Amino acid sequence: MKVLAVTGIRSEYDILYPVLDELRKSKFDVSIFVSGAHLSNEHGDTYKQILSDDFEIADYSDTYLSTDRLTQRPKGISMIISGLCQTVDRIKPDFLLVVGDREESISVAIVGNYMDILVVHLGGGDPVFGNTDDPIRFAVSKLSHVHCCFSQEYKKNLINIGEESFRIFNTGNPSYVNISKVPNLSVDKLSKDLKIEFNNRPYIVMIKHPLSSELGEVLEQIETTLEAVCEFCETYDFHVVIIPPNTDPGSNNIRNIISKFSSLSRVHSLNTIPRKQFVNLIRGASALIGNSSMGILEAPFYKLPVVNVGNRQLGRLNAGNVEFTPYDKKIIVKALKKACLDKKYRRKVETLINPFGDESSAINIRKAMESIAPNDKKWLTKKRLC
User: Which domains does the chain show, CATH number per domain?
Assistant: First the structure.
């Protein structure tokens, strides 16, 4: 059976990779439609990672528009749909596979429905509030034929919006397979690879994205966050490694402010990092700060404390490792102190129960897809929509 996966950004591909690797070991013929930031020099040309993982790239689609205008994402969607329908018509896959809530997700769901191809969606049923992506995720769920969700609670949410239970598989988060298989690097080797000198001091990692409903406040928000981070690092002798934001409107403003702080000796700003180095960077960190979904979905596997600043990710299921703070410098510093230096709290995080599965998640997804007959009309035709 043919599977066409669609991905436009590295974080998305890191979730897809273990699934695609598992599928190609079975009876599936796997290829990938690559778009968006994967093809951007600014974001590290991450399509090269896909090639080095020895996957066939079915098509390259240049859909990334480097602008902070709100026209960026809907225009990108129109470009993805235009290219993807041609690729699907040529390849005629049995399954379209996509993850999450970004432009690629809604594009795949639309193309799959109109072209009668089964859409397998990873990561549905996850309610988040305040960002453009949030309603898109649930729109994708309504347009998808098969759901591989990451927790039992998310499965219940999909049933509550009218999805038939036979379509829903609680598989867990497949990115844990990636993490568990990455070999350990010594601190010296990691420092050399990343060209960072930690001087034998602890460090935190920062990943900060814009929020679509708060674009007018982006500059103030990133400045407040960075000022708090720098105050904490200076007071308690830490370093901070900053990973660049996603490609959403407002991201250029965040990058510009980060560059102003990068001259400080304790601040290390990086571009896209290869998977091996990224996993080891997170393994060695004392905490993660910002507003990345990684703090919700991946950090529990690392047993990593997280300080989530602002409204992005607010309301999501979490494992108990996340401190939510407003954009208040004193509160952020206090939360970082707790995350990095409170031994009792850190022991609690180390013993947390992860609601998002384990290393078997990719196998679970492969078994789910093996159980589906693409020609069986019950999968393509939804008898219940609400």
Answer: 2-173+357-380 (3.40.50.2000), 186-350 (3.40.50.2000)
